[in-house]
Structures are given as structure tokens and as C-alpha cells.
Amino acid sequence: MSTGLIIIACLALIVIVIIQIGKVTELAAKIRGEEAVQFESNKRTANFMLLFLIGFLILTIWSAWHYKNWMLGYGPHESASAHGGALDSAFNITLFFTGIVFIITHIALFWFAYKYRGRKDGVADFMPHDTRLEVIWTAIPAVVMCFLVIRGLVAWNEVMADVAEGEDSIEIEATGQQFLWHLRYPGADGKLGTRNFKLIKAGENPLGQDWMDDKNLDDFMPADIVLPVGKKVRVRITAIDVLHNFFLPHFRVKMDAVPGMPTYFVFTPTKTTEEYRQELSKYPEYQQPSDPNDPKSPPLWKAFEYELACAELCGKGHFSMKKIVRIVSEEEYEKWVKEQQSFYLSSIRGKDFDPRKDEVLDIEVRQRKQDFDTAVDKALSASKPEEKIIRLNYVYYKTGSAELDGKSKYELDNLVSVLNKYPNMTIEVSSHTDSDGEDADNMTLSQNRSRSVYSYLTEKGVAAGRLRTRGYGESKPVDTNDTEEGKAKNRRTEFQILTQ
Ligand SMILES: [Cu+2]
């Protein structure tokens, strides 16, 4: 409040000073004769005009030259995408023409202001109309503009061409939200799953992915954009709340993210992050420390990262919508993709809000088979008998009963196929319980459970002579029986490879 008052007081003071100066000038004019003072003032202004003409022209040209290696499109900042060169040259051609016009108009404006200042005996020419002049200054800009617009359109159509059906490319998705980007990759199937805005729930399902769509199950949401060099990328761009803008300055990619209307941009990165750094390292501008307060920090070129920014002023946290973009070799990319966790499997699967929690998914069946085969291979090459025991992690029974749950069949089928693969293999199937209930009951239950597995295997054609069953009740715990977790570990069915 008080600051406001001070500002108002200052402004009032300035106004008073200006009025007073005006009065003094008026008085001086009366004393010396009005005309003489006017012409003197005209001359002074005209000289300033001339000074500004030269000074400003030098400043613009000097600064353009001085900062050229910091500007996109110049020095080390050649476009890092396949289409970027076309856009850069369109910009350069526009800059060439507008640059000429800028210099001519700048000189004419200030030179004329100087030359035709008010002078004693100076008389202005009067020219009511000149058709030739009208034609010239209409035709020239029209022709130049046509050329620029047509050239720009051609470049735009090239840049905006969508991916052709069946073309080798990657599709990723970027969704803007105040104030962050959600990135989504399609996972192993190469396809992004469907979304429904009605399913959006903060903390559970930020993008409204429909988990009943299998394509969603392997989609992953990384923190940074990582892409292989030389591969066509289609970015599907959406927004959840307000307008955002997906901007990759080094790749000349810029597209609005509009709520309710997906947009896209297709581009091919042509330089890895490392190659871009190497290019920067050749310029003295990029040798200074990346942190101005720490002279020991790595030089700017070494610390360089491509970035994703939001180029739409979307609110007060707008500045924080930055993400790192890494362009790597094809091999590095494949390795990175393998390390990524599916959002569904890591954050949704098995939770109360998982609509498919009672279902065994194809993706899990595949994963479990892989894990099972790996465990078998390990046991086969092991020498000690206790290392030849494999736990059947996904064999379930009805509570307190020996009846197999339907979901057990996947794991048991894995066992069947291993037994078919190794016809000389014989095994012992053994079951264990936790310590709840009577010892004798537990013993019977575990024996019956092993028998159930035996029945399943023989029904699938495994010779009975290759199987032995046992029940150990609660006699061989692998963990404490004092916690629910420990008890769950103790309740188990295993098999041991006897001969192979
Ligand atoms: Cu934004």
C-alpha cells in the first residue's frame, strides 16, 4: 500500500517537473523570439535522429553477428531433425527479404526526418497522388509475399505429412497438463492403448487409459523422452486442461496441445545428443562453465541436453514444463525400452481399482513361462539336490481344500511342457502349509494337494511313473509363521528334479 502511494507521489512530481520545464522554455522563447528557439530545437532533434540511425543500425548488425552462435539455425545449431533444414531455409529467405526492407526503411525513416526538418524558408512539396508510386509499392510486396507464402506452404506440407500405413516408425504420446508433461510409449506391441476422459482419476489413472484394452497393458510412462537416431517418430499430442504447446526447439518441432482435439507432429532425429555436444564443443561460446557460480562445473557443451518445453503460456507454473530429450543409438534405445516398466503392471495390477484383477493376462502368462523356464534351466545345471527344487509360484487351491483353482493351469502347463521336453526327467511334487490348524490336518491337506497336482499332470499325459508326491504339512517352513507374509510364503507347492 505504502509503495503504491510513493509511486503515485513520484509520478505526480515528474508531471510537475515536466510542466515547469515547459513553462521555462516558453518564457525563454518569449525572451529570445519564438521562431529561433523552434528551429534550434528542430536541429537538435534532427541530429539525434541521425545519431540513432547510425547507432541502432550498428547495434542490430553487431548483435546479430555477436550472438549468431547462440541462435537456432546458425553456428552449431543446425537442425537436429530431417525436416528442420527446410524450415530453417524458409526462415532464412524470409529474413533475407525482411532484412533488406528493415535496413532500407530504417535508413529512409531517420534520414528523411533529418533532411526534411523544419527550417527557415523551408517549403514542403505537395503531391496529392502518384499512380506509378502506388503501383510500385503495392506490386513489389505482393510479389515477394506470394513467393514467401507459397514457398512456406510447400515446406509446411512436407513437414506435416503423416506417417504412411505400415511405414517403419515409432508412435509416442505427449499430454500437457498444468504443469507437467505425461509421456507415453506403446510398449512391446508398438501400439498405444485407448483412452477415455471419463476414466481419468488423479493418482490412479492420470491419462484415463482403458485397462480393458490389451494395448494399454504394456504402455509405459517414462520421465524423459528417449528416441533412436534416424527413426521416424510420430508424436500424438493432447492436453488435459488448457492449451499447451509441444516444443522441441532443436528439432524445429512445435505444435499446440489442444484439449479434446489430438494433434500430431512427425519428425526424424538426425543427430544424437552426443553428436550435438561434439558440434557445440567446437565453439568458444560453449567452453564456459555450465553453472556461472561454479567455475568447476562441466562446460556448456558437455552439459547440453535437448529439451521439451511448453511454448504456450499456460499458467503460473508454465516454466516448469521442461523435460529432457535424449537421442541415442538404436541399440541404446532398445536397451532403454527393455528397462522401462509398464505403468499398468507396476502401478495398477492387483490393486483394488484394477478392473482385471481376477484375470490372468496373456502378458503375465508369457512372463511367467519365461521365469519358469529360466528357473528350470538353473535347476538343471545345479549340482546340489536342494538347488533342484522349484517353487510353483502360481498354483492356487481353494482355501482349506485340495481342489485346484482354475488359475493354476498356466503354471502347471508350464511344468507339463518341461516334462515333455525332457522325457527322462522324474520329479517329486511336494506341498506345504502354514502352522494354522492341527498338524495332522495340515499333513493330510498337503498330501492331498500334491495328489491334485499329480492328477492334473497325469491327465495331461505325463506318465505316472515319472511322478512322486509328498505332503510335508507344516514341518518345513521357509519363513516365520508369525506374520501373514511369512505364512503365505510357507503355503506352497514345489517340485524337485530327481533325475533329468
Ligand atoms: Cu504449458
Radius of gyration: 38 Å
- N- to C-terminal distance: 88 Å
The poorly predicted ranges are: none
Largest sheet: 5 strands, mixed
DSSP, total strands: 13
The CATH architecture assignment of the largest domain turns out to be Sandwich
Instruction: Identify every distinct bound molecule in the structure, by name, code or SMILES.
Output: copper (II) ion
Q: Mind telling me the CATH class of the largest domain?
A: Mainly Beta
Number of domains: 3
Distinct helical segment count: 12
The whole-number mean of residue pLDDT values reads 89
Name of the CATH superfamily of the largest domain:
Cupredoxins -  blue copper proteins
Strand content: 15-25%
> Percentage of helical residues?
40-55%
Order of the strands making up the biggest sheet: 3-9-8-5-6
Order of helices and strands: HHHHEEEEEEEHHEEHHHEHEHEHE
Strand-pairing-aware structural class: alpha+beta
Shape: elongated
Could you outline the blueprint of secondary structure elements for this entry?
Elements: H1 2-32, H2 34-66, H3 84-115, H4 131-159, E1 169-177, E2 180-184, E3 225-228, E4 232-239, E5 244-248, E6 253-257, E7 263-267, H5 273-280, H6 300-303, E8 306-310, E9 323-328, H7 330-339, H8 343-348, H9 362-381, E10 389-391, H10 409-421, E11 426-432, H11 439-459, E12 467-471, H12 484-490, E13 492-499
Parallel strand pairs: 1-4, 3-9, 11-12
Antiparallel strand pairs: 1-2, 4-7, 5-6, 5-8, 8-9, 10-13, 11-13
The chain binds copper (II) ion.
